[in-house]
Amino acid sequence: MENIKGKVVAITGASSGIGEGIARHLAELGAKVVLGARREDKLKQIANEITAAGGEAIYSILDVTSPEEVKAFAQLGVEKFGQLDVFVNNAGLMPLSMINGYKISEWHQMIDVNVKGVLHGIAAALPIFEANDSGQFINITSVGDRWVGPTSTVYSATKFAVRAISDGLRQEVSRNIRVTLVAPGPTESELPNTISDPELKDMAINLFRKDLLPASAIAKAVAFAISQPSDVDVNELVVRPTGQKNL
Length: 247
Ligand code: NDP
What we know:
With 247 residues, this protein is an alpha/beta fold. Helices cover 46% and strands 16% of the residues. The protein has one domain: Rossmann fold. It has a seven-stranded parallel β-sheet with strand order 3-2-1-4-5-6-7, with helices on both faces. It is globular and about 50 Å long. Residues 12-19, 37-39, 42, 62-65, 90-94, 113, 140, 142, 184, 186-187, 189-191 line the site of NADPH dihydro-nicotinamide-adenine-dinucleotide phosphate.
């Protein structure tokens, strides 16, 4: 695939699921990957496996709710690999619940990670991209960035927000900076573990998670967007399991 080899790609939420899949796939295609998340043991293992397979990977503990930590994370790519070409805003959580469950701390957590975390990623990487007049954001939303149903109200709101932020960003940045939104349907990952109500977790799995994409399907969509010539900006990719019709 063109335009990926040698690129430095920073990925938030790279310790499991989709972020891990993106890191492994891009490293196989020759990108230098910078992995960030809170679980160091997972990051270390994934980075070691990528390196053992002949790829280039480094990692850093990262909490995306801290703008300072996200800034240092974006700088790490520049410090260790000399540049930053792509920033993947992927970290997220999905503690589904009904509004009248009043799980206010979970609402706050989703807004802090899914929305403010993405804004922190933009604030960290955009100055680097602007200095080089080159770069690409990949923002991982969800089919919930255009669909809302009972229990997904706040989660979908965070993803609708990231879709709005992505399109505004696309229009504001220079002609040479790309903004890509990738909206996955249900995908194999640890995401359902963030649902605190066991009944809702079962319901979500039974209703929406019978057909699951492998994380590699989202990684391939990300690779497609990066691999385009620099004057081609793939703005939105929606990827669902073929059998998933009700989201
Ligand atoms: P996982 O739970 O497997 O991965 C979530 C990742 O986010 C983990 O690496 C986790 O790492 C990280 N994370 C969570 N909170 C923070 C934080 N405060 N700071 C840094 N990293 C954090 O789920 P997915 O891979 O599915 O989720 C990735 C993205 O994909 C999310 O944005 C999700 O909304 C989106 N998505 C997923 C779908 C699915 O069906 N799987 C469908 C549609 C969208 P750690 O705990 O180590 O910090």
